[in-house]
Amino acid sequence: MNKADITVLENLVNIPGVPGREERVAAFIRSSLSSTCDCQLDNLGNLIAHIPGKGKRVMVVAHMDEVGFMVQRILPSGFLRVERMGGTSLRALPGSRLSLWTSNGCVAGVAGVLPQHLDNHEPISDFSTIYIDIGSSSAEETRTMGVKPGDVLTWDSPLRSLTGSLISGKALDDRLGCYSLIRLTEIIKPEDLQCDLFLLFSVQEESMLTGGITAANSIEPDVIIGIDGTLSFDTPDLEGKQGDIHLGAGPAVKWMDAIRGKMAAYVPNHALTDRVCEIAQAMHIPLQDEVAVGMSTAITPMVYAGRGARSCALSIPIRYHHTPIEMADLQDVEKTIILLKALLTTVL
Ligand SMILES: [Zn+2]
Q: What is the pLDDT of residue 339?
């Protein structure tokens, strides 16, 4: 990955974009896309980039939003109570740094945590005990800083490089997918496409899963390919728990994902998924197998739009999902982009 690509990824990850507030992410992606794309925003904020080609209508999806928080109350003491937007990690919150986005700009904050000396190690189970400290000593001072209920917060955790090709930071889920789609437009020649290609950068995945449905309805794709993160099981606490997916072993091909008890299981098209595996094998791209419980992605409801679509999904393994230190391997991302290009230059 060259320096310009790293800069694009850094910017993508650092821009705030909680569910329903994805405009800045969409504007950045639009400015980064190759001129071969015809871009449109729908009324919900979904960004659709069209690269005309012959054949079936194929839609590749990555979601722009990230988990975060919303200011619920300003306490008389100036501290803030917040509510979660999406499945933000409660365990990772106390002691973390946050960025609070107000109409006056960004305010730095931290999530309060007990000093070790006074900590009797009660489990964190009650979200209402969490408070945000922005250094203000009264509600009036907080309001003077431009803060009001409805303002949103994201993790303050810029992208870092670790050893080898590992990176860590917030919002890798699913800005790595958005990044993959941007890079795809740079390396794919429209004349090589074996489809009429739509890239969908969708909204409101983390809160509803359903934000991209409006775009799917207007595009009416024959085929949907999802690009999102998946759970990685290569840390000492998770090893062997649900699967063997680990960083650096290539993208995962999805066989199923499900949120238990929520009627949100997703099973991709079997023949299409087999075809993805064949193409990957022919290109010597290693694939991992994903059968994930506890998560789903933006394409789950989209396959039911219009006349229905055949679908498949490639997943980028990510450790520490929905925390400020999400971790991924750039080599998995590169392999995802190469495989995606191969899929779109083949008749699916
Ligand atoms: Zn995601």
A: 98
Instruction: Quote the mean pLDDT of the chain.
Output: 94
What integer pLDDT is reported at residue 122 of this predicted model?
A: 74
Q: Please tell me the distance between residue 243's alpha carbon and the centre of ligand 1 in angstroms.
A: 18
**Ligand 1 mean position, distance from CA 206 (Å):** 7
Q: How many A from CA of 200 to the centre of ligand 1?
A: 14
Q: Answer whether residue 229 shows pLDDT above 80.
A: yes
Catalytic residue list contains 334: no
Question: ∠33-38-40 over CA atoms, to 5°?
Answer: 95
The fourth-level CATH superfamily of domain 68-155 is Peptidase M42, domain 2 (2.40.30.40)
* Domain 3-66+170-344 -> CATH class: alpha beta
pTM for the full predicted model = 0.95
Amino acid at 316: I
Q: Report d(CA 104, CA 6) in Å as an integer.
A: 29
**So where are the chain's domains?**
3-66+170-344, 68-155
